[in-house]
Write a structure and sequence with these properties.
The chain is α/β, with parallel strands linked by helices. It has 16 helices and nine strands. The strands form two sheets. A seven-stranded parallel sheet has the order 1-4-5-6-7-8-9. The protein has a two-stranded antiparallel ribbon with strand order 2-3. 48% of the residues are buried. It binds coproporphyrinogen I. Coproporphyrinogen I (1CP) binds next to β3.
């Protein structure tokens, strides 16, 4: 008997095993730019959509059908576990996560009890099961990195400076460590439950970790991201670690123990391998904004990403960050075709 998706280019690339075409998927491929998403999403908080497993399954599969990508990413959000334990999170359309009472002091730790996925997020598990039953491509489960989730809980809304977060991290390390420990354990519980239900790989989105200096990242964040990767290591599924603007901390992120390092467009793939070692398995890294330009420019930039990878078997093509809402789905479909055509016959 073969394991599910044993011939998947995505899973092969995650392990740098030989495969015959470069796999590709897009961060934020579900939702956002797809008209079929807008047609069924409705209005109001995305948390209501996520709580509907049938709808979330359909949204997860829409980009697989439309683009022919090699992996699905679960339709959910990084703040779902904190919301599910009753921290008081909403995700406001056009804004992002907002918090009723932001995390301020030791007493707020009580509002972050451990996540019990079966009872707190049954809809997530049901969506995973349904997508896995569809079986067309491997499903990537995910969680937010403890730092990125903490930044939302502390700031109370999307932030550009992370002022309060850094003030707590540097000013009250004991409280910071206690918060990070809870968020790491919440991520582990969520990821393990997604894997138990059939997710084939996981990604830790520490999207905003690039806001930190290397020494601060190393001291205040790395131990907790490492805890998450160690906490799912025994499952054997590939583990991807991603953040934006992480060029200066890439070596530290790689040290956290993931199998695959996601890079944004600021660090070319060949430069990333100079920094991290020639065997490093990479995911990325077309600048999403390129997809708003003329098709010949898109093609040239896609070719450049592939050239810089140099046919290394450990490469999953992706954008350097998420799909932008204004993107034309036809351009993304074209990118998938170009990436798939690249290795054919070579
Ligand atoms: O492909 C997908 O869209 C999968 C589902 C998905 C994922 C992986 C959503 C749905 N959110 C996420 C992760 C997520 N959420 C991240 C990490 C990925 C990344 O860096 O892009 C982050 C930082 C969030 C937080 C968040 N949720 C924001 C960012 C706000 C900020 O700080 O600038 C926003 C706008 C949301 C809302 C949201 N989540 C997902 C969608 C499709 C949306 C858009 C709003 C909507 O349709 O209502």
């Amino acid at each position: 008997m073969t394991t599910p998706h044993s011939d998947s280019p995505f899973l092969a690339a995650c392990r740098a095993e030989p495969h015959d075409r470069t796999p590709v998927w897009f961060m934020r491929q579900a939702g956002r730019s797809l008209p079929e998403y807008r047609a069924i999403r409705g209005s109001g908080s995305i948390l209501n959509t996520i709580a509907d497993a049938d709808l979330s399954t359909e949204i997860t599969l829409q980009p697989v059908r439309r683009y022919g990508v090699d992996a699905a990413i679960l339709f959910s959000d990084i703040v779902v576990p904190a919301h599910a334990v009753g921290f008081g999170v909403d995700v406001r359309p056009g804004v992002g996560p907002v918090i009723d009472r932001p995390f301020e002091c030791r007493a707020d730790l009580e509002r972050l009890r451990p996540l019990e996925p079966e009872t707190d997020t049954p809809y997530v598990l049901e969506t995973v099961r349904q997508v896995v039953a569809d079986g067309s491509v491997p499903l990537i489960g995910f969680a937010g990195g403890p730092f990125t989730v903490a930044s939302y809980l502390i700031e109370g809304a999307p932030s550009r400076t992370y002022g309060r977060t850094k003030a707590m991290m540097l000013g009250d390390p004991e409280l910071w460590n206690a918060l990070m420990e809870r968020l790491a354990d919440m991520a582990i519980a969520s990821l393990r439950s997604q894997i138990d239900c059939g997710a084939s790989a996981i990604q830790l989105f520490d999207s905003w970790a690039g806001a930190l200096s290397p020494p601060v990242y190393e001291r205040c964040v790395l131990p907790f991201s490492r805890r998450v990767f160690e906490g799912v290591a025994d499952t054997g599924v590939p583990r991807i670690h991603f953040g934006v603007g992480t060029g200066e901390i890439l070596h530290l992120m790689a040290d956290a123990g993931a199998d695959v390092i996601g890079v944004d467009w600021r660090v070319p793939l060949d430069v990333a391998r100079l920094r991290l070692g020639p065997d490093t398995i990479l995911q990325g890294n077309l600048d999403p904004a390129v997809c708003l330009g003329p098709l010949d420019v898109v093609e040239a930039e896609v070719a450049d990403v592939l050239r810089r990878n140099g046919d290394h078997p450990g490469h999953i093509f992706n954008l350097g960050h998420g799909v932008l809402p204004e993107m034309d789905p036809a351009v993304l479909a074209h990118v998938v075709d170009q990436v798939h055509a690249h290795n054919r016959g070579s």
